[in-house]
Write the structure tokens for this entry.
Amino acid sequence: MNRQQLIEQIKNKRTFLCVGLDTDIKKIPSHLLQDEDPIFSFNKAIIDATSEYCVAYKPNLAFYESMGIKGIVAFEKTIDYLKNNYPNHFIIADAKRGDIGNTSAMYARTFFETYNIDSLTVAPYMGEDSVTPFLGYDGKWVILLALTSNKGSYDFQLTEDRTGEKLFEKVLLTSQKWGNEDNMMYVVGATQGRMFEKIRQIVPNHFLLVPGVGAQGGSLQEVCTFGMNKDCGLLVNSSRGIIYASNDKDFAKCAAEQAHKLQKEMSEELKRIEQ
């Protein structure tokens, strides 16, 4: 999916919601455990219930890899189900890959050729040669970690050099030499608040993937006030707040209700760029 197609989906559906498929076998409703593939059964129900309220899905690879081959099969089935039934939804593989060049090239082959997924989260801290192998695929996106929502972000990302430049600012500035607004996004945690102002000064036109709304306490309104641009420029992710809204047989219905609630809030926020 290219940039313009993504923008059109946001405008037409009145939402920039990304549903995170962080599917934990220990947290899904117990009645699903008797299914042949409980992880896929859960994902399928969540996708069917929330698809009209979101433009993207983000399976987190750690939750699938933790189950070995069964988890990988469930991941593959989830991707196939999305592509076959909801082809206009943007798919993000949240895998946070990044290694020396030849290894990154294999990771890129995995997600962009074998799985044919739209985008992949990538850790930039090994530098240019660890990122550029992912940027050689037309219509595919690299989503670089920039400023994350966890407490540990203060350990490195917000440290300053002698000139006062923060490490995450250097990532934003330097990475623009590798990619552009048509093939690169940035992860910025919703809990960072007014830091979005500084980020938009450096990357005014890039899309930002924003986790941390909902269970992690980030404010959608604050993110939109300081982070939205003329094209929206945001994919706001909610995982636990949607997919674990209920642990009973009504889990899909409750997930839909939470997704719809966010979609309605996002529709109101989109009026900012329409005035």
Strands lie at 17-21, 56-59, 90-97, 119-122, 141-147, 184-188, 208-210, 234-238. The first helix runs from residue 3 to 13. The CA atoms of residues 196 and 227 lie 5 Å apart. The radius of gyration is 18 Å.
